């Protein structure tokens, strides 16, 4: 890519993009419903202490962080890609630049809406089920529910799905959407698997976290009308706060100035002529001279005003 093309992409666009917001299509509704069914099945499997809970205990007793300790240092840093604070700051910085460049608040409002729904939905289930983590389990084979915990579903995993998936959701080209979808999937799958490796989550926690994040991404088009209304209100409020002097300029009609001609305003004896007062030539000049000569007699020398008085009084004093 040439340097000028790269710099052109960093500049602010002249107007807002015309790409319409995604709508809740029939395919998306089917996927949303199917994902909701999977969500309910996972919760039921844990509540009923089914085979899924036995797999949870098998992986926990395997202790992967002890089986493969060489990956521990790297994965301790990699799991940060699922923490809500650092990832929200990174993605918000990127989307803030996009909002400035595209002259729209929609990217930031979509991120804020998704994180709000994520915190409310995932947090409510965490507190309601109260499941303890693997490091705090008290009875082998138990689901460890309603014990004051807060790890089911996995917040790291759900946050990774939503935060990185927002980039693919807001992509403006099919190619960018495919690339960002792969990146988001790698981060989401990697963060979920890392929490199981480190022993901070059960396998069922991670499965439910993946599904919870996917449900939020699939349901985001339902939030688009509210996002558009909030954006319009923010811009309207900004216009009300804008000072009067900095208001957007509008054309003012110019009123033509009418008045007496320059010759009428000037004195007869001041000896000055304007560009619009043309000197007559030919027959017209001779007629003018005759009219001037016969009209009135020239005053005698004694009757004429002195040069000193004329210079003192000026054209108005006369």
Automatic annotation (TrEMBL):
<feature type="domain" description="Phosphatidic acid phosphatase type 2/haloperoxidase">
    <location>
        <begin position="108"/>
        <end position="221"/>
    </location>
</feature>
<dbReference type="Pfam" id="PF01569">
    <property type="entry name" value="PAP2"/>
</dbReference>
<feature type="transmembrane region" description="Helical">
    <location>
        <begin position="179"/>
        <end position="200"/>
    </location>
</feature>
<keyword id="KW-1133">Transmembrane helix</keyword>
<feature type="transmembrane region" description="Helical">
    <location>
        <begin position="73"/>
        <end position="96"/>
    </location>
</feature>
<feature type="region of interest" description="Disordered">
    <location>
        <begin position="252"/>
        <end position="318"/>
    </location>
</feature>
<feature type="transmembrane region" description="Helical">
    <location>
        <begin position="30"/>
        <end position="53"/>
    </location>
</feature>
<keyword id="KW-0812">Transmembrane</keyword>
<keyword id="KW-0472">Membrane</keyword>
<feature type="transmembrane region" description="Helical">
    <location>
        <begin position="206"/>
        <end position="223"/>
    </location>
</feature>
<feature type="transmembrane region" description="Helical">
    <location>
        <begin position="151"/>
        <end position="172"/>
    </location>
</feature>
<dbReference type="InterPro" id="IPR000326">
    <property type="entry name" value="PAP2/HPO"/>
</dbReference>
<feature type="compositionally biased region" description="Low complexity">
    <location>
        <begin position="255"/>
        <end position="266"/>
    </location>
</feature>
<protein>
    <submittedName>
        <fullName>Phosphatase PAP2 family protein</fullName>
    </submittedName>
</protein>
<feature type="transmembrane region" description="Helical">
    <location>
        <begin position="108"/>
        <end position="131"/>
    </location>
</feature>
<dbReference type="InterPro" id="IPR036938">
    <property type="entry name" value="PAP2/HPO_sf"/>
</dbReference>
